[in-house]
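Lay summary

Proteins are chains of building blocks that fold into shapes. Our project writes down both the chain and a compact code for its shape. Here are two examples, one after the other.
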Amino acid sequence: VTHSIPACIGNMTINSKQPDSESPVSIFAVNKCYVTVQDGTFFDGSGFAALVREGYKVRSDVNITLEFRTTAVHGVLFGVSSAKVDAIGLEIVHGKVFFHVNNGAGRITAMYEPKATNNLCDGKWHKLQANKTKHRISLIIDGNLVQTDNPYIQSTSADTNNPIYVGGYPADMKQNCLTSKSSFRGCLRNLVLTKGQHAELFDFSRAFDLRGVFPHSCPGAEQ
């Protein structure tokens, strides 16, 4: 067995003595245990999850669905970019959700603004769907559809080749379709990317880099 156990461990003794768990010599990807938990992945607001080490190619079409729960009004949800300008990004800024796409000719944005700033940052689960079909983009939050016009109709492909970053991104990694540098604090679940007939559910425990991200459970209430 080469992977860690997704569980809580308590009251451990070695030779009838309890080790000092409050001040360990070293610690990596260990969070506290919660009395109540929900399915999902907990982001503590300090880091990110990196997926698809070899690079994800958005190209002409992609549909992103996920669910999020947060009490913060700022936070990066999702980004994948290229070394040039091509990129897509999802973020929460001032309680609004933004879906940015750049197919190479210029950035376009679909923005969902709730009736009140904290409507989406109320600690409850919200469902997001972001769709890019060639030069058209749309954003659906809890069933509410937002579309935007694109003046660059001849440019249809986002030629990305970098990894997918969820919940944030490294300081030295350029993200051409994200304006926020704030890491997401809260829970995410059911991240699915669909291209044509192929749908892929991403397991955060298989990320090649996890910082401040705990993939197997979310606290039942804000901690």
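And here is the second example, written the same way.
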Amino acid sequence: GNCFPCPQEGCPMMGHYADRFPEKLKRVDQKYFLNTAADEPFATWRQKVFIKLSGVKKTRGDINLVYYDTQGNSKEYEVASGDLSQDDVYTQYLDVEINPKNTTKIEFRWNKAIFSLLWARLGAETVNIIHGADG
């Protein structure tokens, strides 16, 4: 959990595509990390998530996405937390443990901060998720 977000020059690479980062080979005593899921098959799928909010102009709380799969499993991921604004697009890389091919539903969840306006409502105007063969 200490390697993300990556430094400006990028994350240390290992495995597939590692040869695309020749500068990494010149450094010594590097730490390499491999993100895995907690359970078998230990694979994770990197997804880039963009969320544009609708509703109140500004509020406090956190935005989560909950992934559901065909076997009834679910996993919740935090995308943003703290001061939230309708004018911002929240972007996050998620290492999702649920295979995109088996995903049946992705739920947008807003958890309101205790001191937030009681009447405040917040929704997702758009949620874009990008994934590919190499994450």
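What can we say about the second shape? Strands lie at 45-55, 58-69, 74-85, 89-96, 103-112, 122-130.
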